[in-house]
Amino acid sequence: MTAAFMDLVDATIVNIAIPSIERDLGATFGAIQWITAGYALAFAAGLITGGRLGDIYGRKRLFLLGTAGFTLASALCGFAAGPEMLVASRLLQGAAAAMMVPQVLSIIHVTFPAHERGKVFGMFGAIIGLGAVSGPLLGALLTQWNLFGLEWRPIFLINLPVGIAGIILGRKFIVESKAPKALKLDLVGVLLVTGALLMLIYPLTRGRELDWPLWGHLMMAGSLLVFGALAAYEKYKTKKDGSPLVELSLFKVKSFAAGIAVQLTFGVVMGVFFLVWTLYMQIGLGWSPLKAGLTGVPFSIAVSAAAGMSVQKLVPRFGRKVLQSGALTMAAGVLLYIWEAGRYGTSIAPWQMILPLVVMGAGMGLIVAPLTDAVLSEVPREHAGSASGLINTTGQMGNALGLGLVSVVFFGVIDEERLQRIPGEVGTAFADAFQNALGWVAGVLLVIFLVMFALPAKPKQHVEGAEQEEEHETPQDGRDLGLAKEPALAG
To answer: The pTM is what?
Structure first.
């Protein structure tokens, strides 16, 4: 949980401190772009590989290595002497996170018996909600306080005590687990999946800055061919030695395939909303980073509360309907936000945003924790690492797609030449663009609602198999829990 929170905060904390970094290091716009995008690229490209390495060499071992690497990279970011060193350190940080994060879900999956797993995923969902919004708030506070005259550097240095604590506690309390069958690292698969993701995400992160060049569109189209080649090679690899990087058989599990589709589209929603929300408040309304960060607190509280309640109380009783209610609730909050932004214009106050943000946060909380549970519910234990890597990678891909779409749904409706001539219209233009972007977000949420019909009607781990699993293995007996011959649920 500590590692998951640290990663989520770090992914969002940087944006708020960008002006301070730009002034202090004299960074160009391109360097600034890479400080934020470099982390996401390295993280997305390494996630599936990180999950598979955990299956092969031990999830605890990879978790501790990833956490140590993440903590070291955070120190390098905090002490960076120039923009080049900061970009390189952020790439290292993303690569380390790709080793650390997939192990979190894998360790949960193989450590806890089925009837306890729901409560743990409830906690995980609450951590996700808290981390997603507390990052900007924490970044605003640390930057504004200018601790010891370090300006933006504490946003990275704060990871040091957290990371060290995670390593110490992880060594003591986490039980080692591996895949029950001896696996080999699929190097060709690693190259193909990394290449395909880079070809898709790199043009999206740089496209607007470079005015959407032709080579960017060709790279994104080419990524589909590389994904196709990956699928063909993984089929061959499965027949050859049974050690593919991407376990294609997982997509035959209906709940997993549907959950991945929901994860991708929900990632798009998050990518669009959080970026345009920040631009709307800080540029359109002219709010300070701290004021914008504090405005997100009700959203964070609502996400955390709804996430904990959804898995522990609602999902066991109502199943898939809880996730679908979350999608509709979040869409209702988005529509309410659009109405308020239109009615109050640039004079809107933070207290007037509380209601739509609480409704949206409650909807998001009803989705995030149960979705993870639903995607992994019927996954065989030996593929826990591969499945976790795919879940996280899909979320990152969706997020990157959402960030790319911001150029269309937000900046695409802003007349930049007109704003250069009439700077006083910036607020109105950004408010209009914000409403347009949120209209698209509401539409995607309705698509997510429909895709959720393919999820299991009820979470099987809550209604069957729990007693049998507990009889065969318990997390307290000290055995390698990853060596179970049968998955807890056969599906």
So the answer is: 0.75
Q: What is the CA radius of gyration of the chain?
A: 22
Strands of 350-453, DSSP E? none
Q: What is the mean pLDDT of residues 476-491?
A: 32
Given a contact cutoff of 8 angstroms between Cβ atoms, the answer to whether 406 and 157 are in contact is no
Tokens 């109502």 locate to: 318
Cβ-based burial of 426 (10 A; exposed 0-12, middle 13-18, buried ≥19) = middle
**Which residues are CB-contacts of 285 (< 8 A; sequence separation ≥ 6)?**
346, 348, 427, 430, 431
Beta carbons of 367 and 266 less than 8 angstroms apart: yes
Question: Using one digit for the tens of pLDDT, what is the confidence trace for 148-198?
Answer: 878 889 999 989 998 999 999 999 999 888 877 767 778 898 899 888 888
The answer to whether the Cα torsion of 335, 336, 342, 343 is positive or negative is: positive
| Nearest in space to 413 (alpha carbons), one of 295, 286, 285, 280 | 280
Q: Contact at 8 Å (CB) between 341 and 309?
A: no
- Annotated domain spans of the chain: 2-209+216-470
Query: Could you tell me if 119 and 311 are in contact, meaning their C-beta atoms sit under 8 angstroms apart?
Result: yes
Per-residue pLDDT tens digits for 449-463: 998 888 877 765 433
Cα 441 from Cα 438, distance rounded (Å): 5
CA distance 155 to 190: 32
Measured at the alpha carbon of residue 386, what is the angle toward residues 444 and 304, in degrees to the nearest 5?
Answer: 50
Q: What is the pLDDT of residue 129?
A: 65
Tell me how crowded residue 88 is: count the other CB atoms within 10 A of its CB: 16
pLDDT digits (tens, 9 = 90+) for 281-331: 877 888 887 888 788 888 888 887 888 788 778 888 888 889 999 999 999
2-209+216-470 CATH fold: Growth Hormone; Chain: A; (1.20.1250)
- pLDDT average, residue stretch 476-484: 34
Tokens in use for 351? 């207290």
**H helices present in 248-296, as ranges:** 254-279, 289-295
SS3 237: helix
Query: What is the rounded distance in angstroms from the CA atom of residue 398 to the CA atom of residue 401?
Result: 5
Write b or e for each residue in 325-342: b if 16 or more Cβ atoms lie within 10 A of its Cβ, otherwise e: bbbebbbbbbbbbbebbe
